[in-house]
Design brief:
The protein has 2 helices and 2 strands. By secondary structure, it is α+β, with helices and mostly antiparallel strands.
Length: 92
């Protein structure tokens, strides 16, 4: 589920490289709009080669991206403004 300080972006037809680029753009926009010295952004994504042919439901993709985002929060020690992860694994 999406938490109170989280949001989801659904970008159908966007590959993994596009998801990273989108997260980088969002990070720049948010960090320039709010002056916060310790601003950090965690992001996660799930991308499939051809969404129309992929055997995955939209809700499952959102859940997978949320799981990846929560994992990226653990990367905060890296000192990067943006910590982003691709979902790796399978849902049970």
């Amino acid at each position: 589920m999406i938490g109170p300080f989280e949001f989801a972006v659904v970008a159908q037809g966007t590959d993994a490289a596009g998801a990273v680029l989108l997260a980088e753009r969002l990070t720049r926009a948010v960090s320039s709009a709010f002056v916060a010295p310790n601003f950090r952004m965690a992001a996660g994504y799930d991308a499939v080669q051809n969404y129309h042919e992929a055997p995955i439901e939209p809700g499952d993709m959102l859940m997978r991206a949320s799981m990846a985002m929560r994992m990226s929060r653990g990367d905060s020690a890296s000192g990067n403004v943006l910590n982003i992860r691709k979902f790796e694994g399978q849902l049970n």
